[in-house]
Every structure is written in structure tokens, then in C-alpha cells.
Amino acid sequence: MLHRAGIEYSVGWNGTTGGRPCGNPPGTPLRGDTTKALACGHDAPAYGLPVCEHIRTATDEVDFSIHYTGHGLEHQRICALCREEAQHGRPVTTGRICEDCSDTSYGSVVDSVGRPETIDASRPVPGAGPQVPFPADTGTVLDLAPTERGLLLLAADGRILLWDAEAGSCTHLATTGVSVPADAEPWNGHDKALRLHASRNGRFAAVAVDFGRTGEVIGLTTGAVTAVLENDGYHSETVPCSLLFTEHAGRDAVLHRTRWNRIAGTDPATGEPVLLMPESEKEAAWAHSFHGALHLSPGGTRLASDTWLWHPLGQPVTWDLARWFADGESAWHGEQPAVEFRRLPPCEYHWNRPMVWLDEARIVLGGLGDDDEAVVPGARVFDVTRMVDLGVHGSGPDETATFGGPEGRFFAADGLLYSAGGPGLEIWDPTSGARIGSVPGFHPTHHDTVRRELVQLTADGVRRRPTTESLPTG
Fold it and tell me: How far apart are CA 341 and CA 42, in angstroms?
């Protein structure tokens, strides 16, 4: 069981601990504008976020809220009394203080109030199509997976069906033996559930238990199990199953978690290993992450994992999958492994978050804030091919854009970001951060990259919408 505990140190993007307390949302400079007088009156550089008058004059630690003013990404640290004022839309006076004064009054983050500004440049966009019902004999559909052959459906009785809605056909290809344990209990609001994955060509499927430890790969031409998947179960209840299909040199491969901190690649036709992380590298930086959901870049060259690490905090990581295929285990050796292992910014007690690749360099991370008590809707775009100096925190991927608004599941197509939360689908320009369109009431659950569509799985069928937008010009 993971519990929230007192936080004493922040964790840098590179996974090292630093001496600054946590609680400031991302993008907060350690040093501010030194040309203006500080509210505390000291002749020193500004430090951290602006604070309210009650925090400024405090002689002991004060728990605080993060207040987003609605002006761009502007945010500040305010006490409970000022939070009430902000909650009712009344102005709150804040000012910058020095590091010593910040350390004196710095308590624990409680929550957030307000939201970052959303830049709205919406234009008319096509809506989603009508619901297409499942065939009568499918029963309850738990999940689906798009393939070149059509949509694969996972029925509640374990059948894997190939559905061609246009042709009106539904073929039973295989039956899985994987099931959710009868005594399964939710963890932190996450229920154990069966998930269906498939190779793009539709030759193989995998069924696994999210927030569990078991799964299997099935050859869909024979219906036979070709590989049994199981991780060591160490805190597996905290993350979805780390699993996806990819291709290399014209052959399918399935990537999956074998232990809490190890991902492997398996040939789905034979069950033989094709990729391994070295067991000998026990002290390497990458060997301390609990792997979660995997995210593949559009061209299949890079991989991201929604990991967490002690104490705990979520910290997604990325690496060069193409180099791993090329060099094998040796790509992970040394202090600077050839796979270009990158850490994205951490967030206290927060993982299982929206994440998607825009292209082979840029990845979008959902949520603004560095503590789960104060995360607000938004997106952060990182170029993992460009490392920048982060001062006391070492170096990290270049953050090319940060903006408020996106929430729910993330998808990407043709350079655009799609988010599916709140009122429905919203479409974003990830460079300017502007919302350029929306489809209320449409909440896609899957991305069909074969047909270039977003798909919403409902209780009785699916709804679809093409990803036909382009970036604004001019």
C-alpha cells in the first residue's frame, strides 16, 4: 500500500534530489527578477512563486493553495484565508520574497484554485458520426483494438472477434483464458480490468489485466496462445499493464513488463525474447522506475513509459527504441546509455496521466503542477532530442510549450493534439497552445491510426470521427 507522507525534498528532472521543497508548479524559476524590490524587503534575488501577505509575514510553515489567476499561466502561493477570497473571485495581493523567507513559511500544498487561461481560437470542425451498434451476438464488449483487418473486439466471455462494420461481418478468431481475479480490489480508484492489444496487421492479439500481473499473446490465425505474460507483481496494482505491439525489420514484436523495473520484447509468433534490459545494471538510473503504460512514437523509433519511483512520485521516461533494437542489451550499459534514457519532470504522488507523442521528437504530458493535490488541466510539450540545462537539477528535455486546458485522454495526429475530457473532444495547436476546435459529447477512447479516426467505445457500439484537421496557417 502506498501512502502520502511528509515531503522533504524535490526531485529533479534527472531523478536526483535537491534541497528545495516541493509544491511549485512547473516552470517556476528558482531565481526571479532581481531588479524589483521584494515584498519581504530583503536585498536578495526573488525565489519561487509570489506569495500572499499572510504567508509573507508568517514566522512558521503555512500550508498553501496554488492560485491560478486566469492570466496566462500566472499562479501564486496563497493561504487558506486568501483562498476563500480567490474562490469568490475577489483579488488577492501577492508579492515575491527571498529564499530565506520562502524557506521559513513553506508548508504543504493543499490544493489548487482557479485555472490557467485557455486560449480559444476555435473554428468550425466536423462532428462525430452516429453510433454503429455491435452485432446482436457479441454480448458485452470490454475493449477493442483497431487493425488493418478491422476492429478486434474483446467480449466479456473471453471471445476475440473481428468486426467489419461496413461488411456487416463478425468472426470469432480466438478465446482468451485471462480473467480478472474474483477477489480483485480497486487501487486508488483504478479497477483491475481486461485490456485488448493487437498488432497493426491483425495477426496477433494480447489480453492483459490492467493494474494486475497476467496476460497472454494469441496468434489470431490459429487461436493458439504463443506467449504467457506475467510480471513479478511488485506493486503491479499501481499501474496499467505495460504492453504494446510494434514492428522492427518487417517483423512484429510485443513489448511488455517482465518485472517492476524491466521491459522486454518478445516475438509474438514464437514467444522467444528479442529485446532485454540487462539484469546486471542494478544501480543504473533507469533501473529504479516502476513501469506503467507504454506509449510508442508514430514512427516507432521512441518509447515512453508512465513510470513512478519512490517516495513515490510519477516521473515519465523515454528512450530510443530503434537503438535498443539495433544494439540489444549493450544499448543500456554505462552512465550515458546509447538508448538516450530521458526523464520528464516529476509530480508527487501522480502518475497514470495523459501522454502522447506528436512525432519522433516531441511528447505531450498532461497536467500542470508538481503535486497531485494541485494538478490542473493543461499540457506540457517536450522535445526529448534536445537537452537543456536545469541548474541544480542537471539537465532535461527541452520544454517547448506549456498551456492550460487539455484534460482526459490524449491523442495526436498530423501535428495536432486531441484531448477527450470534460465536455468532449477538444483540438489543440501544441505550438501556440490554442484550442482550435471542439466536438461536444464525443469522448473517444481509442485511436485508429489505420483509418485515421478517433473511436469511442460505448456500451452498445462505437462512434467514429476522422482526424482530418490541419494546423492553422497565417
Answer: 42
